[in-house]
Amino acid sequence: MQKKIWAGLLMLAGTTAAAPQIEANTTCSAAPFGKTRLYLRGSMSGWAAAEEDAFRWDCDAYVITTELQGVQDFKIADADWSDKTTFAAPDGAEAAGGVVPVARVGEGGGQNLRYRFDGWHTVRLAFAAGRPRLTVQRAAPPAPTVFDPVALSLHHDTRALADKAPFGAAKAGSEITFGLDALTGVERATLVIERRRLQGNQEVIDYRESARIPLKRVRTGARERWTASHPFTHPGIYGYWFEVVIGGRTYVYGNNAAPVYWTRERGANGVGTVSTMPRDRTAIHRFRQTVYAPDFRVPDWAQDAIYYYIFPERFRNGDPTNDQLAGFGARADAEHHATWTEKPYRPGSGDGSDRRYSNDFFGGDLKGITDKLDYIASLGANTIYMTPIFAAASNHKYDTGDYTRIDPAFGTNKDFRRLTAAAARRGIRVVVDASFNHTGRNSIYFDRYAVYPGIGALEGGEVRRDSPHADWYRLDPSQADPDDRYAGWTGAKDLPELDEMSPSFRRFVFGAPDSVTRQWVKRGASGWRMDVAPWVPDAFWREWRTAVKATNPDALTIAETWFDSSKYFLGDTFDGTMNYIFRNTAIDIASGGNAAANYRNIELTRELYPPQSMRASMNLLSTHDTARTLWLLGDRGDDAARSAEAKRRYRLALFMQMTWPGAPTIFYGDEVGLTGGEDPDNRRTYPWADRGGHPDETMLAEVRRLTRLRKATPLLSRGTLGEPLYADDNVVVVPRELDGAYALVAINNAPQARTVNLRLPRNFAGAQVVDAITGAAVPSHNGQVRLTIDALYGTVALAR
After folding, report:
1. Is 732 within 8 Å of 599 (Cβ atoms)?
2. Engineering a disulfide at 296: which of 338, 439, 571, 786 sits with its beta carbon 3.0 to 4.6 angstroms away?
3. Which residue among the candidates 447, 560, 564, 588 is catalytic per the annotation?
């Protein structure tokens, strides 16, 4: 459940239309907000107020020129999200010719701005008659600030073995050798290694120097070679950069400034850039290096997983007799849909619902999932991931009311055992979900409204120090309003924040033999996906992982993280993540974005994630926190031609999901063409034919075909992923290898077929190359292969 910063989304189509230019007689004025700085805050920076995303006042407008790729959600705001200086899209606003109406939050602005970037753009916030106006236009890269030819010749590529060996994430105890090339003229070069501390949801990113190593000149001539080695003895996330002296001046050669989806820290590794030494060293872009524990292992089964991802309330109603039990602990405000095929209620939309979110119910339950296990198995799925199933007032269940029992509207604890046992008979595992960051205020632990027996921490609105749960929360009895006596997660008062440092809370959730974590694993869960992991202290996760693995060494631990998750893969917290970086890359490529530029995000994870974590992570497309993929690709359900085009593009994203490392994760209904916008529309019911729905059987057949391909070709799940052999605006070709088996996997997002000629890797020498999907021979001769890739699709060329 990612932090809900947005209430909705406004899509701005990428445009080449120029923004209105400042005329010669424009009168410059003072910045309207004085010294208050505005920032471009969004998915390009994890919504942080990052220094390099700061606007500058330029005569009559706030301006920033930035390099971004793919769809980005954003707002313009100061560091504190003050309403006066936070600008967003008004409801119903439409982009026209690159000019977008915006409004302050509180004056009509509420939706995120969304724009598809494809390189350098200038974002400009101006004011006409006191009204804000936003323009976005393509821009040239900024002028260089370094002119020395020797400095400009510096070169280090983190993915080239000549420059850094061994490749990628390294085991603690490894020695890594670094290399730097340049024209003759470098006087001195030093490798600076730092260790990173990253706190919370990227709020604090701090590097502390751990070593300075002089590089040695090992080759002279027109280009000189400098090298150094360093042993990395402890697991951690490290940064490194080169301090280089040329002509008496000091330069920094460090990471590039490419953004990474959802990640505050810029730089996608690969080839670096040179700059003069900044006054503030926090401005340096460090190359990043992951060092993980030598004994770090993930469950073997997780590396072959294909997930079916279920929002239980909307999948299948197997037992109508429990429907009226929905809304555990709520104050009699549950709304029940009469028809399975209705859309979820959206408060304030005029659909007849009340003003409360997430209190409408369709009747989905555990029996409905159990009844459809054969269907799930027929998809090729071998793992079910369910959003929370514990008793709670809402339909999403992240406001946990009782961690020890299944929600009454979903069934009973015995029903959970029946589900996991029936799934196991079909070779299907079940992964469960919970938040240990917050509970519901209608929980038995907090009991804001005195609904339950016993004494809650805020029983009936009063702070009760005699409650056994009093130290689970941070309470302030001095406040007059009961809702001010506790902190709600991100300000949401229905989600009181937990204090994970509480010893009694830790015993309850993982320490005791009958703790929550242990008892659900013993009841049949194969692992845990943990909600909002970055908001929980790392020390908590370290102890929690120990408890999980002590209960079942083969139990999986998955973090909900949206950004570069390297710090969770050191061997002491999580096995994998919900891979939003893969999701954004696949969707942006499928929607027509620059394939090579967007793919650099996957290249970063290939380099920074230990291979076992990359393979065990959930490769998502749609999720319960985002608009469905078909919706993002243009299928709004109201235009047959747009729907057909969106489904063609979805097939490409699906192909990537099924052929790249990482566990393919199918959000219920995606496989039969279910679309839907932002929450709650993305949580529509599965369109069962016997309940009045219309599943897309053609799409269903495609999903089954691709899962069969993945299962029949082990190198797609287990094989190494190499550096792209070819990449351009539309096509990416990557090598895969496993135990002497080799393949080329290629994608093409152009609206027409593409043919590329490639020199085969040495491993292909003399092999017959066939299309793994069709079985047809792929033309190859004298070490060359000719790959033809269908429009908006991909191919797998196997060497035999």
Report:
1. yes
2. 571
3. 560
What is the per-residue pLDDT across 291-350, written as a single tens digit (0 to 9) for each? 999 999 999 999 999 999 999 999 999 999 999 999 998 867 899 999 999 999 999 899
Q: Which of 92-96, 116-120, 303-307 has the lowest mean pLDDT?
A: 92-96
Kind and range of the H or E run holding 530: strand 527-530
- Please write the tens of the pLDDT for every residue from 252-306: 999 999 999 999 999 999 999 999 999 999 899 999 999 999 999 999 999 999 9
Average pLDDT, the chain: 93
Is residue 203 flagged as an active site residue? no
The partner residues of 243 in beta bridges, in order of sequence, read: 190, 252
The partner residues of 308 in beta bridges, in order of sequence, read: 384, 666
pLDDT of 490 > 60? The answer is yes
- Closest C-alpha to 175, from 183, 185, 184, 165: 165
Q: How far is CA 645 from CA 106, 592, 659, 707, in A?
A: 37, 12, 22, 22
Is there a contact between 672 and 697 (Cβ–Cβ < 8 Å)?
yes
Output the pLDDT for position 27: 84
DSSP state of 651: H
Query: Strand pairing of 383-386 and 429-434?
Result: parallel
Q: Which residues of 266-305 are buried (b: 16+ CB within 10 A; e: fewer)?
A: bbbbbebbbbeeeeeeeebbbbbbbbbbeebebbebbbbb
Active-site residue (options: 319, 402, 531, 679): 531
Residues 6+ apart with CB under 8 A from 438: 398, 399, 488, 489, 495, 496, 497, 498
Burial of 322 (0-12, 13-18, 19+ CB in 10 A): buried
- Of the candidates 789, 759, 541, which has an alpha carbon nearest to the alpha carbon of residue 659? 789
Q: How far apart are CA 495 and CA 148, in angstroms?
A: 56
Residues 6+ apart with CB under 8 A from 280: none
How many other C-beta atoms are found inside a 10 Å radius of the C-beta of residue 603?
A: 22
| 451, 442 contact by CB (below 8 A) | yes
* 349 Cβ contact partners less than 8 Å away, ≥ 6 residues apart: none
User: Using CA atoms in the order 341, 345, 346, 350, what is the torsion angle rounded to 10 degrees?
Assistant: 100
Only one residue has tokens 């959600």, namely 73
Cα 380 to its chain centre, rounded Å, is: 24
Q: What length is written for the chain? A: 800
**H helix or E strand, kind and range, residue 137:** strand 131-138
- Whether residue 14 is predicted with pLDDT greater than 80 in this model: the reply is no
Range list of H helices, 713-757 = 715-718
* Amino acid 99: pLDDT: 61
What is the rounded CA–CA span in Å between residue 136 and residue 117? 10
Report d(CA 469, CA 487) in Å as an integer. Answer: 15
Strands 109-128 and 9-12: parallel
| Spatial distance between the Cα atoms of 253 and 152, rounded to a whole number of angstroms | 10
d(CA 252, CA 245): 9
Determine whether 531 is an active site residue.
yes
How far apart CA 200 and CA 219 sit, in angstroms, is 44
CB-CB contact of 241 with 287 (8 Å): yes
**CA distance from start to end of the chain:** 45
Burial of residue 358, with CB atoms counted within 10 A of its CB: 0-12 exposed, 13-18 middle, 19 or more buried? buried
- pLDDT band at residue 21 using 50, 70 and 90 as cut-offs: very low
According to DSSP, the β-strands at 236-246 and 249-254 are antiparallel
Q: Which of 387, 545, 492 is nearest to 3 (CA)?
A: 492
Q: Is 506 helix (H, G, I), strand (E, B) or coil?
A: helix
Report the C-alpha gap between 85 and 503 in whole angstroms: 41
In one-letter notation, the amino acid at residue 717 is S
